[in-house]
Amino acid sequence: MINENYRQMLQEKSVIRELSEYAAARGKEIGQDNVFDYSLGNPSVPCPQGYTDALTQMLMNKDPMDIHGYSPSLGIESVRRAVADSLNRRFAMDYDSKHIFMACGAAGALAHAFRCVTRPGDEILIFAPYFPEYGPYISHTGAVLKVVPADTENFQINFAALEEMMSQKVMAVLINTPNNPSGIVYNTETIEKLADFLSTKQKEYGHDIFLISDEPYREIVFKGEDSPYVSKFYDNSISCYSFSKSLSLPGERIGYVAVNPRCRDADIIAVMCGQISRGIGHNCPPSSVQLAVAEVLDQTSDLSVYETNRNLLYDALTAMGFHVVKPGGTFYIFPKALEEDAKTFCMKAKQYDLILVPSDNFGVRGYFRMAYCIDMEKVKRSIPVLERFVREQYP
Amino acid sequence: MINENYRQMLQEKSVIRELSEYAAARGKEIGQDNVFDYSLGNPSVPCPQGYTDALTQMLMNKDPMDIHGYSPSLGIESVRRAVADSLNRRFAMDYDSKHIFMACGAAGALAHAFRCVTRPGDEILIFAPYFPEYGPYISHTGAVLKVVPADTENFQINFAALEEMMSQKVMAVLINTPNNPSGIVYNTETIEKLADFLSTKQKEYGHDIFLISDEPYREIVFKGEDSPYVSKFYDNSISCYSFSKSLSLPGERIGYVAVNPRCRDADIIAVMCGQISRGIGHNCPPSSVQLAVAEVLDQTSDLSVYETNRNLLYDALTAMGFHVVKPGGTFYIFPKALEEDAKTFCMKAKQYDLILVPSDNFGVRGYFRMAYCIDMEKVKRSIPVLERFVREQYP
User: Fold this and answer.
1) List of chain A residues whose C-beta atoms are within 8 Å of the C-beta of residue B75
2) Chain A residue with minimal CA distance to B211?
3) What is the CATH number of the domain that holds B90?
4) Could you report the per-residue pLDDT of A321-341, keeping only the tens digit for each?
């Protein structure tokens, strides 16, 4: 008999996915060029040529047994070494290969990190607005997700609300900076304040509180932004990374867990991830992808279009009268809707073939997300449509 | 604080892995040519050139966004379609793409299948001898693994023992044919008898009992063997497949779940797998690997060396007086040890640089496994060493 818990989950539809499917269907009717699909956070620039070259060269010149052979469940040792070296070089850290666990994207990295540092029933705090997939990642571990209300002034951290929700039961705090959906980068002041707060609470409660940092947008930070490397500020921390956005490889499911060498149990957390992987059956990311990524660790796709799009949209939206906190990175912007109910607002926009995602899914009401990982030319063409929508619906 | 359950697991060392590490270290001392490492089931022949060509061509000629873009969590639709078509063509089945879930190897396929059809506390029966990784796959779901003792006469199914262990609590039965570690292929008589037995028990208990079939060795079947396609015989069945052995791609973690179109809930089991994947964070196998595998679905590596090695070893071992059931497939052989304690037997063999795996790990006492996925020349050179070992230790 099939498991009713998993059957129940089939009811949980993704609003983002539904909107994106609507956009595709609508595009077939009126032409894709005429639908302004801001729904999906799917990179719009190709992977760097270096990645394609590295993989092609490998396939042409190397023994297939070396490319496609078993990877240890923690990842290929030379790849873990290369990741540690790259992080140490770029962020002045002191990772060893034993602190790196190669994961199937940030999703796999996060799901493993949650399992390592919580037990069923423990609480994990996250900050609104947040990426809704954290829900299933956490609920499958048996831990309990609690959402700290947003600081809607500037989308940094609402410390008053955090203080109120912190308790003995909290074993981990999850942050995501640069942030999906707000586009905001937590600045040094925010990270320092969070680190101090957690250090104090660790002492008060007499147990560790892990800071888990979800960093798939780490390489998409715009000019002049203060973007600190989280693990420099707090010892009991774990970084979860994905190459999906920086190298435009979302389908290849490749990322890693980097365990802070100064955290408690630093030497065994990666090994625990390996055991968890073994049990859930995913074992390790594909060997060819691990090897190819290791060749381009310090490269990125040409990410400049995202900053250009950010500028275009931020300027246009503010000129139209939207209240919007200027994103410092990612490819998202998160303006306040022009009426209280974001769903109604987005439904109205849909009539203009503007596909916007209401904020309710991200744990905040009254905002909407635009994923501007689309062609710059299309962003430009969308602006007069946005203007007409606002003029006609909110005169 | 780290999760003590997962920390405990760090104690569970793999005997096979330890033996293989010993063999590698010993090889450094005396030369790899002088160590006869029969420990690891790692394919010894390269992937077919067709796979390398398909992937290289794709990298050179296709838009990187199409190769590396997000795959739906159930797998790329065209790939699922191609897998269904291939199975229908080869086994006269009637799979639709909706019955196929692309998984990260057979490991991922099995772990998902267990979650779909059992709840924590339910029992899953397996037959000795068995692949020890089933232990962690099942324990992570909360279900309970129960081992049906072996039919040591011919390593088919011990139906008397099965009858005894069957109960209301059993929601799934797992088989692995061709079998690791025995190398035996379940014949049509065995599969029919099992199907009849399970059908009767379903009626008696008033609930479904799923037959989960682990089939990574399906393509490694030797001349003249009767190797039925399991799902033809029993409606409530799920096939779990990996390309690791047939295409020699163990590191690429690619396989699938094929849900019998005639089973209860046939239309939603693959979708449930997608939700499970989403929750544990592995999401889907890498898109480039899915696309490349779809180009070579009906191909295999040159698997003929395994049959040659089987013949060499079977003939030599029987001539030396070993009791051994002749393998019909895989690259394993599972002879009876020459003394009661297989561990002692294998320790003695180690002194001759013969690396054999004692059967205790596979749920049977007094046997040993040889993984003959090694060069034929090395198999030949190992025979006089085996003879000397037997002559000197068991005169």
Assistant:
1) none
2) A1
3) 3.40.640.10
4) 999 999 999 999 999 999 999
